[in-house]
Design a protein that fits this description.
209 residues, mainly alpha, Endonuclease III, domain 1, binds iron/sulfur cluster
Length: 209
């Protein structure tokens, strides 16, 4: 993925926001590159008109993402101007979380992928692997984060996080995990019945009266 072979903080941040609610294929084929062409830097985005930003986001949905992205770029641009430097993203997770539209997951992804910090990422694929490794059916977020922090490879966090995503996408898949070729099988407690973990949340169907 282009956002994994770059050191550009803004490119990585943009990809994380786009990928929050959208499939990789859609982001890659239709939105990521045109958006970067129109707004090539954090400053260009921060200085842009919101309507122009929304126009480039058209069809991607969840427009709050675009509004927050624009707001954050504007804030960072102003901060950069006050300090006489080009706008940049903070590397600290607590600082990242304070910015509009950046939650715990995105903050960790930016810290891990843009700053190569020794922190874990947390997304659906990673959650599934952690649940299966530890036979967890309905873990809390806190439990998962604790396990993820224990498990992350502190020396090679970037490779570790990328590997977890790749294993989740290609080996430890939701319906038919390939445990026989999985590099984690020797430590996986759930490999005998992996699809039991995690338990799927039942969709609550409202009853109309
Ligand atoms: S051994 Fe199987 S269940 Fe465990 S992490 Fe690997 S693919 Fe998933």
């Amino acid at each position: 993925m282009p956002w994994r072979t770059t050191n550009e903080l803004y490119h990585i941040y943009l990809s994380e926001v786009m990928l929050q609610q959208t499939q990789v294929k859609t982001v890659l084929e239709r939105y990521y590159f045109p958006f970067l062409k129109k707004f090539p830097t954090l400053k260009a985005l921060g200085d842009a008109n919101l309507d122009d930003v929304l126009k480039m986001w058209e069809g991607l949905g969840y427009y709050t993402r675009a509004k927050n992205l624009h707001k954050t770029a504007g804030l960072l641009t102003k901060q950069g101007q006050a300090r006489g430097i080009a706008p940049t993203l903070p590397s600290n997770i607590d600082e990242l979380i304070k910015l509009p539209g950046i939650g715990k997951n995105t903050a960790h992804a930016v810290a891990a992928f843009a700053y190569k910090k020794p922190v874990p990422i947390m997304e659906a694929n990673v959650k599934r692997i952690l649940c299966r490794l530890h036979t967890l059916k309905t873990p809390t977020d806190k439990e998962l984060w604790n396990i993820a922090y224990d498990f992350v490879d502190k020396k090679n966090p970037f490779d570790y996080n990328q590997a977890m995503m790749d294993i989740g996408a290609t080996v430890c898949t939701p319906k038919s995990p390939s445990c026989e070729v999985c590099p984690l099988s020797n430590i996986c407690q759930g490999k005998d019945e992996p699809t039991l973990y995690p338990t799927k949340k039942k969709r609550l169907v409202p009853i109309r009266e």
